[in-house]
């Protein structure tokens, strides 16, 4: 979870780090990651991803996270 927070916390998102964490996790693991992220940061991971990314990359990540338009 610290990797995700660090990747999106500063100016400019570390897209490589975000992609690596989200793409390499199974659906079950990703749910646990989202739950832990919320407990530690009091904000949904999906919300942060949506805020810190844009365009096709944003759509790609949110789709992998189980969100549809």
Describe the overall structure:
- It is a single chain.
- The protein starts with a helix and ends in a 5-residue tail after the last helix.
- The protein has helices at residues 2-9, 15-23, 27-41, 45-52, 55-64.
- It has 69 residues and is mainly alpha-helical.
- The chain has a single domain (2-64), classed as Annexin (Annexin V, domain 1, Orthogonal Bundle), CATH 1.10.220.
- It is built from five helices and no strands.
- Helix content is 72%, strand content 0%.
Features:
69 residues; mainly alpha; Annexin V, domain 1; 5 helices; globular
Provide the CATH top-level class: Mainly Alpha
**What is the tally of helical segments?**
5
Supply the CATH superfamily name.
Answer: Annexin
Question: Biggest β-sheet: count, sense, barrel?
Answer: none
How far is it from the N-terminal to the C-terminal residue, by CA?
25 Å
Strand fraction equals under 5%
Radius of gyration: 11 Å
Backbone shape: globular
The CATH topology corresponds to: Annexin V, domain 1
User: Considering DSSP H and I runs of 4 or more, what fraction of the residues is helical?
Assistant: over 70%
Name the poorly predicted regions.
none
Q: In brief, what are we looking at here?
A:
This protein is an all-alpha fold.
